[in-house]
Please model this.
Amino acid sequence: MFTKILIANRGEIAVRVVRACREMGIRSVAVFSEADRRALHVRYADEAYPLGPPSASESYLVIDKIIDVARKSGAEAIHPGYGFLAENPRFAERCEKEKIKLIGPSAHAMRTMGSKTLARKTVQAAGVPVVPGTVEPISSEEEVFRVAKTIGFPVMLKATAGGGGKGLRLVREEEELRSSLRMAKSEAKSAFSDDSVYIEKYIEQPRHVEIQILGDQHGNYVHLCERECSIQRRHQKVIEESPSVIVTPEMRAAMGKVAIEAARAVAYEGAGTCEFLVDPKRNFYFLEMNTRLQVEHPITERVTGVDIVKEQILVAAGEKLSIRQEDVRQIGHAIECRIYAEDPDSNFLPCPGLITSLRTPGGPGTRDDSGVYEGFEIPIYYDPIISKLIAWGKDRTEAIARMKRALSEYVVTGVKTTIPFHIRVMNNRHFIKGDFDTNFIDKVFFKEEEERPLKHTDVAVIAAAIQVFLEERKRAVQQKPSEAAAPGSLWKYSSRPGLRRIV
Ligand code: MV4
Model:
């Protein structure tokens, strides 16, 4: 086993990996940019080394700097977390050359899955159902017309180097095809310096369901069932759950089996995820494979009891997976809400800044994976995530109730957060029924909230609340000085919880 692991990441995921190391008796090495000098991952790790300027391209993304710290600290392995260098095959090759074990799949697996056409070709050959379309980039305008007519409109043009929503173009009819192709190519070129695109049949009202897999160096594979990730905004997941309400036991077994075949096709090692689109008739199609630990891995850990990060470390050290497929059980229901320093009332505008007070929820069935603390200033340079709140229950109803309870306990001041938004989703009738697809947030949730007429009872409640507020203020002002604490003092309010503080 390794004695020391470098974590080439920051924030909550770096904290998550440090925790696994500590439990396994492995020393942890943190790296940090100038903006992260006081970050939690730096405090929790056994050692920490500076990387330089705040901008990721001058710190967390600089391969030479990371390798240099690994050398200096004597780390035998590097955990890349997610984002930054996690799916970079050049980084994987460099680690190989330096004889430092990268905790993750080979450069070959990353490269194959990184090219969306090569991934489609490879998994299709392994018997995995892919969305109808091309497995090679489009070579001419004639070809795009021919293929689109064969598979039928609507179609989607996608960047070969894409993934995660960049370089996508929906084409509803033949007339739009030529101009859409030009636009898709120019978008792909500016985003990825690679203008190649391919074509797929457009799946209407799809759900995004993904399968977590684990593989070791001895050819053993297990899948850890599915995660439902359809609740997304601008291709960023906001709420995930496991199990998915639409996945039947037969479907789970079938999706798990093909996910393992996809992994086997690239001799996959470590933790990985196969994303699928599921149409309203429950047909499923491979979309892409993520060759990293994912943000939402805790919900799978919660329902299966498997510590995915520990398994990653074990298999990277050459050990066999600690579990067999027949031991995998999905127990109860887990939901994750990603809590961001963003203003849901201003189009989710990022609101980084100082966290002036913080009280995290606890109690039965909750987990809060966070990289922040009271007094920490969320830097402007990175993803403004505050935490991932996970609630577990014996069934979906209990998981939702616990999530609502935990969200109501959560207090963050100093920055705006997405907590109120999550509370609204947990109360949404479509969400409660499990009736949603990838269009839920924009086309259903916000639209419905905007159009909802104000009921007379709502107006009465608002009027009553204003009345109570005014009366309380009058009472506060009328209090005798001997009784009333100084304005703004918390003494009075701490012993009399019924009294609201009037500022
Ligand atoms: C699709 C699709 C419908 N049909 N492909 C968006 C992100 C990228 N990973 C693939 N995406 C989609 N590909 C076909 N052939 C619909 C989407 C899509 C989507 C997928 C998953 C989660 C959220 C989404 C939101 C909009 C579109």
Remarks:
- The mean pLDDT is 94.
- Residues 131, 156, 163-165, 168, 200-203, 206, 208, 232, 235, 277, 287-288, 438 surround MV4 (CB under 6 Å).
- Residues 456-478 form the longest helix (23 residues).
- DSSP finds 17 helices and 20 strands in the chain.
